[in-house]
Design a protein that fits this description.
Blueprint (H helix, E strand, L loop, with lengths): L5 H7 L12 E2 L4 E4 L1 E4 L10 H26 L6 H10 L13 E9 L4 E8 L5 E4 L21 E10 L5 E13 L2 E13 L2 H4 L5 E4 L13 H7 L7 E5 L6 E4 L7 E9 L7 E9 L2 E11 L6 E3 L1 H8 L6 E2 L8 E4 L7 E5 L2 E4 L2 H4 E4 L6 E4 L1 E3 L5 E3 L1 H4 L3 E5 L4 E7 L1
Parallel strand pairs: 5-10, 6-9, 15-24, 16-23
Antiparallel strand pairs: 1-9, 2-12, 3-4, 4-5, 4-8, 6-10, 7-8, 8-9, 11-12, 11-25, 13-26, 14-15, 14-19, 16-24, 17-18, 18-22, 19-20, 21-22, 25-26
Helix pairs in contact: 2-3
């Protein structure tokens, strides 16, 4: 694992505004990238995949443990969310050892790397900051398209390694390079990427080849400036933001603003409270007009499937759903409810805007074939903060504004 020198700590104070070295970038007015969905959490028959569900919490715990530690390594001080998060881990009775990190839901699209150009599929994750692909020498990278640095005339070794550890104890590790990276007509030369010689079980079995992090540079393991921030720092975008539509079909990532055909009205914005994650304050969580929680530190994360809240808020929410109950046999903090009583009145208020959680999005399906009980898309995480994952993002058009350090939401068209 990399550690940070004092020079790196100082550099991170201005990474959000200026890239460490000039990077040649092609200017564009904005670009829409189609996204595909890969989900292991619900089968085609509408029954929840219990193995994946049980590992959900461990997967999320591990991701945030890794990135919170890296934030401190990069900046020389703990993230304000770190004390509560690590205290909560100490109180948990369930360990992640021995769990298989199967993944749950990912939103992926194409990136192009190297000279000559080669296309890869990557998961776009607003909850992490690094970009990596499987190396051509990787022996456990499955059937993925691999990156061969020696075959790219624009690849340059950085003489650095990287290691990412996952909930099942497996690792993604390898060597860092810079190369030309493009998404459509948006191009960054000398973009840092990891070429993984060893892949975790999660990525070995995934549809996508790698991952591109879209969170702030402060979380980078390498450490390096993420692709979208390089685009913005060098003035390559007419609008320093990117936006997501996540849906069963027609999903997209728009870099350089927002796709006006995908939303109606105007955006409601809320400031990022601390750069690192896309961290904001959730105004309230309601059901049937009754407020069950308010003013909660929250992270908007496209790489997490569920909405995670604290235990008290989860208990209060589900107490308003007749027949609902917590069922730890399905995983820590998981709640079930009668399949014939799917709530249609759950609301998250963010940036002063009320977002109704669609019943189809909230309902993750039957516990088992023929069961009368279904799994809810809001779980108790007890991290010391909330996570607004896909269950939230699939109900709004979401904009991540790098220039103004804020998150915006708008009504889907």
């Amino acid at each position: 694992m990399l550690t940070s020198s004092p020079l790196l700590v100082a550099a991170f104070a201005c990474l959000a505004a200026v890239s460490a070295t000039p990077i040649d970038i092609t200017r564009d007015e904005g670009l829409s990238i189609p996204l595909s969905k890969r989900s292991n959490l619900r089968s085609e028959t509408g029954v929840v995949n219990l193995d994946v569900l049980k590992n959900q919490l461990a997967r999320v715990q591990n991701k945030y443990a890794r990135t919170l530690k890296q934030y401190e390594a990069n900046l020389g001080r703990p993230h304000t969310l770190a004390p509560g998060f690590f205290d909560s881990l100490k109180k948990r009775s369930t360990a992640s050892d021995g769990m298989t990190d199967d993944g749950d839901m990912e939103w992926y699209g194409n990136v192009v790397v190297g000279t000559p150009a080669q296309t890869y599929t990557v998961d776009f994750d607003t909850g992490s900051s690094d970009f990596f692909l499987p190396d051509s020498s990787c022996g456990d990278c499955g059937s993925h398209d691999t990156y061969n640095p020696s075959s790219s005339s624009t690849s340059k070794p950085l003489g650095k390694t990287f290691t990412l550890t996952y909930g099942d104890g497996s690792e993604t590790s390898g060597t860092q390079y810079t190369d030309t990276v493009s998404i459509g007509s948006l191009t960054v030369k000398d973009q840092t990427l990891g070429s993984a010689t060893s892949y975790s079980s999660e990525f070995e079995e995934s549809v996508q080849d790698g991952l591109m992090g879209l969170a702030w540079p402060q979380l980078s393991v390498y450490p390096a400036t993420p692709f979208v921030f390089n685009l913005n720092n060098q003035g390559a975008l007419s609008s320093g933001s990117f936006s997501f539509k996540l849906a069963e079909s027609g999903s997209s990532l728009f870099i350089g603003g927002a796709d006006s055909s995908l939303y109606t009205g105007s955006f409601s914005y809320t400031p990022v409270t601390e750069q690192g994650y896309w961290e904001v304050t959730t105004n309230s969580l309601k059901i049937g007009g009754t407020t069950v929680a308010s003013n909660q530190n929250s992270i908007v994360d496209s790489g997490t499937t569920l909405i995670y809240v604290d235990s008290s808020s989860a208990q209060s929410l589900y107490s308003h759903i007749s027949g609902a109950k917590e069922d730890d046999s399905l995983g820590d903090g998981v709640y079930t409810f009668p399949c014939n009583n799917v709530p249609n009145n759950i609301e998250v208020v963010l940036a002063g805007k009320t977002v109704t959680i669609s019943p189809d999005v909230f309902n993750f399906g039957q516990v088992s074939a023929g069961s009368s009980m279904c799994v809810g898309g809001i779980a108790a995480g007890n991290f010391g903060f909330w996570i607004l994952g896909d269950v939230f993002m699939r109900n709004v058009y979401t904009q991540f504004d790098m220039t103004n350090s804020r998150v915006g939401i708008a009504t889907l068209a």
